[in-house]
Design goal:
Immunoglobulin-like, alpha+beta, single chain, six-stranded antiparallel β-sheet, elongated, 40 strands, 736 residues
Length: 736
Amino acid sequence: MRLRLMLAAAALIVLAAPPAALAHANLIRSDPPSGVVLDSAPSEVDLYFDDSVRAQPGTKAIRNRGGVSVLGGSPHVVGSRELVIPLRGTLPRGDYTVLWRALSDDGHSLGGIVTFGVQTGSRRPTAALSAPDERKPLEVVARWFFFAGILGASGSALFRLALGPRGRPPWGFVLAAFIAAAAGGLVLVQQVTLSTRFGLVAAIAAGIAALGAVLCGAARVDPRADVLVWACGLALLPLPSIGGHALDAGRSRLDLPVDIAHLAAASVWFGGLVSLAYLLRSARGDPVTVRRFSALALASVLVLAATGLVRALGELGSFAHLWTTNYGRWLIAKTAILCALVAIGWVNRYRIRGRDGVVARRALRRNVIGEIVLFGGLIAAVALLTQAKPGRDVIPAARAAVIGRQAAEPVGGAVVLAQNGDDIQLGGRVGNGFALGGAVLWQTAPTEGEAGAVARRDLAAHRTALVVRGVAPQYAVAATTNWVVYATATVPPRLVAVRPDGSGRVVLARRLVAPFASRGDRVAWAEARGNRDRVVVRNMRTGKELVAADVPACSGGRCYRIDTVTLADGGVAFDRGAIGSQPSLIVRRAFGASRFDVAEVSRDPQPDLVPASNGVAYFALGRGWYVWRFGERRPRRVGVPAAVQPLRLEHGVWFAIRRTACSDTLVAIGPDGRVRTLVSPADVRARVGVDPTLCVSFAGLSLAGARPLSTWFVSPPDSHSDEGVTSLLLLGRALG
């Protein structure tokens, strides 16, 4: 009974124990930050990582309009952790997308997207390239053969040393193990290159394994070569640990020996099982051999438990990472297989081993073969684990700028710090917010490369709930009377509507090509259908749709692209930005009209549209702001103060942002030109409770009837990450 309890306790510890993981480099920040709009063009994009990286082919930098490359040279690494992507000369006004690729020192490919705009106004730039898919099935298969070969070869050598002449494994298995390790290593070298530590170790392992395979053949002729075969097997044992991050700067000196001991215990268990299955077919599989292996397997489980516990403390940042990360979920799968292995081992040791006769021998061999099959699944889980990011590598959520405040448990990335009336303070950075009934909803701003979510706060009950996940961060989120509308983080993005509680999912568009618009119960969007672009308006209350425009993307040698869609009380508007030297087009269609109207905008490939209640409001490069009201035949130029950046035009009142070096101010400009401050940086700092040294930045604006709902974030000066950021959702007074 005591021995059973020891095995159970050991198994439970192993459940939390990750394999000798290979840590991945993480992108810490980019300069310029992704999604920013700049006053002047950058000469390069700098990416900063928390571990060594190398430049990898496939990096692109384009202007969104036309897809012209603006890459100014080959990407290169500075100081091992900074990737520099040069850009061409002085970039013209417009939106830009950078697709970067790098190689971590552990051999894993990294990639992502950085977007920025140059003098494009308030609109957040969207990505014109898709983030690279770093999943490589061939690499996973190669890692399986590599690890299985090393476990088999080194485990056979350890089994032979532990049991002496009785423990000679089958030569066919040893040869197959060496070949598997050599083949897997060669494929991995091609995948990750010799410039990384893991690639170099894989090449060395492939060479040793190839030598071991040759010596296996020699040992069949000259038994004196046996010792060289086992030497090759033992030489393979520490290589996966050396190729991982046990030798990284800042890691404990115990990491390498713990890694090697963990791998040795797994090797002797796996190699011993295969050898025992072979020996049970012959007279050498006598009770003495079985008893010795049983003791050896028990020792392996105990070593796995002890070393696994040490590794778990280092690899998992928290217990919650078991189910909140892909690494943790694969670890749970490995755990289930380990449970089955320990259970079969217990049956072999206590129910079968002491019996005599052919039946008991066959039962033991059958169970041993079952363990070998499960070990194959275990190695597959390890291969996938090494592709996933360990919990300790997950960048923690940003801390709030308000020091000493206790945050509630996060709900889908929404950490509510406090609620004062209709004002909500959140830890970290959020996107736009909007009001719906007696609740406020907002879009979470995820870390680079991840999808966002929509959270909902009941203002009366002070309760927060997650509405939906998988939201594309580059698109805003909107709400009608009974629906929440968002774009999915897929390629291509889809436009989807759900009820405020997350139910009743409806797909509105399957290939969204531009940010969508909403007003009242209506939603408008642009979608691609083959080589044509359609602009659709849907009444979410009645379900009726209007196809406002269905136009070819290219016609007569002229090509256009839709960048923005806006809704007015009486119609819909959108732009057709020119891809080429022809004029761009502003297109509008009144509800009830049989056709749309068009106005040309020359010498501007991307006019800036903002929402307007009575028509179209847009900025033409070099000429200023224009308003084209429904009922008027032509757009007319209007005066807007140069010091502000318009956001929308509602019933003759401009909402705009006045920016300074470190602070933004929300203002309203009346028909008479008078400027009224709605939210000042001092207002935001006072509500959040921080000192004047922190910066106040505007994030979004929506209207709840006549009440403006603005989103802000407060951050330390010169901050390029979400560290130390607090957000504020502020529902203002109705405008008179």
